[in-house]
Specification:
The protein is an alpha/beta fold. The protein contains 4 helices and 6 strands, in the order βββαβαβαβα. It starts with 6 loop residues before the first strand and ends in a 16-residue tail after the last helix.
Length: 152
């Protein structure tokens, strides 16, 4: 049985708290980024990142905290998301994978391949989903006005 040694490094990349998961590999790596959803953090995607290395040891997995989440010092706002995208868009990603809010952000980043899980169709939440998210996840997100909707 082959033993695969996987390394997990907690890193700050341009002020973005991240995990980098990789196997020492002599060939060029294929960079995969995993973006979590609203109310989540990079830690929740660690098991998936590790599994991806076992699926393909050529992968190097990058898992950042989105603005307003986890160890991010910024509040979640349109501006902080735009700044975040500016920082990560220069990577040469083999695969961009995002869940919910992370899926929406994934669409704004150039990559060879995408895996989008439950991407929201609108940047605002409304109705029952708005109340459910407020109850279950809002406490975990740093944002000035959670669930702000456009007043008409």
């Amino acid at each position: 049985m082959e033993v695969i040694e996987v390394k997990i490094k907690k890193e700050e990349f341009k002020n973005i708290s991240s995990y980098r998961i990789f196997k020492e590999f002599e060939r060029e790596k294929k960079t995969v980024v995993l973006f979590h959803g609203y109310g989540s953090s990079k830690e929740e995607l660690l098991p998936l990142g590790i599994k991806l290395i076992f699926i393909n040891p050529e992968f190097e997995v990058f898992i950042p905290d989105l603005p307003g989440h986890g160890e991010s010092q910024e509040e979640l706002s349109k501006e902080s998301i735009e700044n975040f995208i500016e920082v990560v868009k220069d990577f040469d990603f083999f695969l961009v994978c995002g869940h919910s809010l992370g899926a929406r952000i994934s669409l704004l980043i150039e990559a060879k391949n995408y895996l989008l899980i439950s991407p929201p169709l609108s940047p605002e939440f409304s109705g029952n989903k708005k109340e459910l998210l407020k109850t279950l996840r809002a406490r975990r997100v740093k944002e000035e006005k959670p669930y702000r909707s456009e007043e008409r």
